[in-house]
């Protein structure tokens, strides 16, 4: 299956082979640097996400690309946030509909809901969990590119 | 010299570059388009009734009736896909300095629908506080909107909330 390629590789000297491998690693690591740099600039662990479900239609459809940022200021009602429920890996993109900031600690109690859902996200949170907090949020949606 | 595949590849790559260039230009120009939205909210009635709320026990629920008059047509430009509009209640309590609750929302998908006139708007969602009581609370009501473009940056706006209303004491049944 790869006979042609293997024959081509055998013809090269060890030095040329090493050069090819190094070239390949350079390209891969450049891509990684750009991605990580973007994550640093937007202050979010995952600055570009893909919409996974239809719960924010007609604003976002499955497959759309969202650009996130995570500024230091606190979350506000109406923000569309991407968050993860602790213990689960799936990021969810929904809007903040209720917010209560504790005066003493500054801790934010946040309730979210998808625009296209009839009920709020308490059904999605962990059992017994009624709010999420700033730590659960990966980023706020800043910009958008249709798929 | 150049076969069909190479030419197709070159054309495709160029098309991609041009498309991204155009989308980028649209995204950059959109925030500079002028707009002049306006809205007015007047509170007609508030009732406070106590129920058992599953997540926090016996809590006071507020039932609000509002008049909403808004003209958001100027927010609709060629890059606007939809507007997300909501009535927002903001207040502070002794234990929590910022409380923001969305009472009603609507998705507006055309310029004609952006002239909103609802007289007798009831809160769509439960209006209940995390401290379970609305004692001592003054709330201000404003209209909040999110402009969702076809391509580009999400922008939002809010009217100034100048109508501050104190919650009445708890009543026993809904009138």
Total helical elements of chain A: 2
Strand percentage of chain A lies at 25-35%
Cross-sheet strand order for the largest sheet of chain A: 1-2-6-3-4-5
Helix and strand content put the structural class of chain B at mainly beta
Main location (chain B): endoplasmic reticulum
Subcellular location (chain B): Endoplasmic reticulum membrane
InterPro entries (chain B): SPC3
Keywords (chain B): Endoplasmic reticulum, Membrane, Signal-anchor, Transmembrane, Transmembrane helix
Q: Care to give the gist of this entry?
A:
Chain A has 147 residues and is of the alpha+beta class. Helix content of chain A is 26%, strand content 27%. Chain A starts with a helix and ends with a strand.
Name some characteristics of this structure.
heterodimer, A: 147 residues, alpha+beta, 6-stranded antiparallel β-sheet, 2 helices, 6 strands, 27% strand, elongated, B: 175 residues, mainly beta, 5-stranded antiparallel β-sheet, 4-stranded antiparallel β-sheet, 1 helix, 50% strand, Signal peptidase complex catalytic subunit SEC11 (chain A), LexA/Signal_pep-like_sf (chain A), serine-type endopeptidase activity (chain A), EC 3.4.21.89 (chain A)
